[in-house]
Amino acid sequence: MLYYLRNIKSTVQQTADAIAAALKIEVEIADADLVRVAGTGKYKSQCGCPMDDGFVYRHVLKTGEPVIIDNPGFNELCHPCPCKGNCMEYAEVAIPIRSDDEIIGVIGLVSFDEEQTKRLMDNKQSLLLFLEKMADLLVGKASEIQQNHDRDILTSQLVTVLNLLHDGILLVNDQQQITHYNTLAAKLLDIDEQEEQALYHLLENKKLWQAVERGETFSGNIQGKRVATQLYCDVVPIKKDGVIEGAVITLRDIQQIKKLVKAATVNEIETHFSQIVGNSRKMKELKAMALHVAPSKATLLIQGESGTGKELLARAIHQSSKRKGHAFIAINCGAIPENLLESELFGYEEGSFTGAKRGGKIGKFELAHNGTLFLDEIGDMPLHLQVKILRVLQERRVERIGSSRSIPVDVRVIAATHRDLDNMVKTGEFREDLYYRLNVIPLTIPPLRERLEDVPILTQFYLDYYSVVTDRSVSGITPEAIEILSHYTWPGNVRELGNVIEYCVTMVAGGMITADTMPKRIRTENKAEIKDLSLNLKALERETIMRALTLVNIDGHKEDAAKLLGISRASLYRKIKEYEIEENKTFT
Question: Residues in domain Sigma-54 factor interaction (predicted)?
Fold first, then answer.
C-alpha cells in the first residue's frame, strides 16, 4: 500500500525543521512524484512545487540507495542538469524514505558553504543513520494516517451495510451499554440519539442477558419497553480469551417475519369463479351459492369426492371475499402425520419439545391472520385436535405448543372433506359440536358422473391447458372420443379427466385424439357399459317400475307410481302386465 507524504505535510515540515535545527543545514523532503513536500531556508517557499532539477533524488527513488555528492555540478548524476559546472550547492546527501518494498520519498541535506560541507563530510555515517531514523518516523506517521483513513472507510462501509440490513443491530458492551446501533434498531426501539442508551432501558433484557453471561446464544421473542411491538431477537456473546466483552443483538419485527414467511410459503395462485368450469345446472347452482356467501365471514364446509376441486372452490371464495389481499393458507389434514399436524396448525415455542427449531415456529393459523385457512380433509383430523380447532373458532385466539400466551387471530376457516361427516358424528369419529360449527354453510360439489354434460367443456379446457403446459398441441378430438368420455363414470372425477387429457395430448402430439388414443381402462369400461345396457334394458325398466311401486306402497296408489315414472296410469298397467310384475293387493 502506498503511503502518501502529502497526507502528513505538517508532520513532514516539522521533521525537516527539526533536522535543520539539529544539523544546522538546509533540508528538503520530496515525495515519490518528486514534489517538494517540505523544505527549510530557500526551499521552504518552493513547497508543493515539482522538482524539475531533482536528478539526484530521481536516482535515489529509482535505486533505493542513499547518495552522497561532494562535487555538485561535476558528478555524473548532475550531467542532465542545466546548472552543471555552475552549481550553487557545495555538497548533498540524499536517502530514500522506504515503506516495506516501496520508496515513498527522499530526504535531502544540502550545504551552501564550507562549514556545512565539512560537517556533512566528517559525519557521513552518523548522518545517514540519523536520517534513516527520521525516514522511519515519517513512514510510521504516514502508515498511521493511512491506516486511520482505511479504518474510517471500512467503518463507513460497515455502517452503510448495517443500515441496509432488514434487521435491527445493537452492539452492547459488558455493562449492557449500547455502543452502536443501526437505523432500523433506532426505529424499532425508539432510540434517542442524544442520550446514552442502556439495554435494560430498551428491552426486557433479563432472559437474553443471562444467556450472554453464560456465554450462550439466545433466540426468542422479546418485548420492547418504549414500543409495544413484539420483537424477535438473536443474541450472540462477544468473547475474548474466555471473557465476555459484550454481545451482538439482531432484532426483527414479528409482524414483518410473518409477512416474509407468508411471501415465501403462500401459494399466490389467484382463482376466480370463472375458472371453475361447468355449465350444468348443479354447477351453476353451486357457483351462485358460493359467490353469494363469499363476502361473509361465515365458516364454510365444502363436501365432495376426491378430485372434484374442493380447494379450487375454496380459493375462488377467498378471491371473491374481503380477505383476498391477505394470505390463503392450505393444509391437508390427512397428509401430515398426526404428531406433526398440531405444530403445523398452532406453531410452537422454542424448546417446547425435543427437535423443536431454535426460535420456535409460527403456525398456519397465525400465518393466515386476516386471510383464509383451508383445512382440507378435515374428516381425517384426530379427535384431540378437533377440540383445539373448535376452541380457536369460538375464541378467535390460538395458543402455541409450549406457550401459556394466547394470540388473537382473525381467520376465516373453510373446511373440506370427501368423507360423510354426518355419519362420522353418529359413530363418534367426529365431534358433533365441531361439525355444526363448521357446517354453518355447507357446499357440496357434485361428482363428475352426476354432471356428465360438463365433460365436453372440461375436455376442451384441459386440451387448451395441456397444449400450453406440454408444448404439444393437438388438432382436435373426434366425436366418438367425446362420446366415450361422456359415458365414463369418472371415479377420480375432474382430476382424473385432466390426467386422461394430459395423457392423450402427450401421446398424439399434433394429431387428432381418437377413441384409440384413450387409456385402455376408459375404452374398456365404456364398451362393457354399452353392452350391459343393451342386454339389460328391459330388466332395468322392470326394476325401476318395481321400485316406484314400492315407494308408494304405503298409500297404495298406482297413479302416484305412474307420476314418479313419468308415464300414464294406463302405460303403467301395461308394463306391469308385460313384465309380469306380481301386484301387491294393497295397490289400487
Answer: 276-506
Is residue 74 situated within a structural domain? yes
Q: Do 247 and 286 fall into the same domain?
A: no
Confidence of residue 83 (pLDDT cuts 50, 70, 90): low
Q: What angle do CA 114, 115, 121 make, to 5 degrees?
A: 85
The C-alpha R_g of the chain, in whole angstroms, comes to: 46
Q: Give the three cell numbers for residue 567.
A: 308415464
348 and 395 in a single domain? The answer is yes
Q: Grid cell 441496509 — which residue?
A: 164
Domain annotation covers residue 587: no
pLDDT of residue 551: 65
HEC letters along 157-217: HHHHHHHHCCCEEEEEECCCEEEEECHHHHHHHCCCCCCCCEHHHHECCHHHHHHHHCCCC
Do 286 and 402 fall within a single domain?
Answer: yes
Instruction: Give the pLDDT mean for 382-392.
Output: 92
The reported pLDDT for the residue numbered 526 is 54
At 131, which CATH number?
3.30.450.40
Query: Both 244 and 285 in a single domain?
Result: no
Q: How far is the CA of 538 from the CAs of 178, 544, 565, 583, in angstroms?
A: 93, 10, 15, 18
Backbone angles phi, psi at 483, to 5 degrees: -60, -40
Residue 585 located in a structural domain: no
> Does residue 428 come out as left (phi exceeding 0), alpha (psi in the -120 to 50 range) or beta?
left
- Give the position of cell 550553487: 88
pLDDT, the chain, mean: 83
Confidence band (pLDDT; 50, 70, 90) for 173? very high
DSSP 231: E
Q: What is the per-residue pLDDT for 202?
A: 85
Instruction: Verify that 244 and 367 share a domain, yes or no.
Output: no
Among residues 188, 186, 94, 87, the alpha carbon closest in space to that of 135 is found at 94
In terms of average pLDDT, the best of 76-80, 150-154, 357-361 is 150-154
Structural domain range at position 456:
449-518
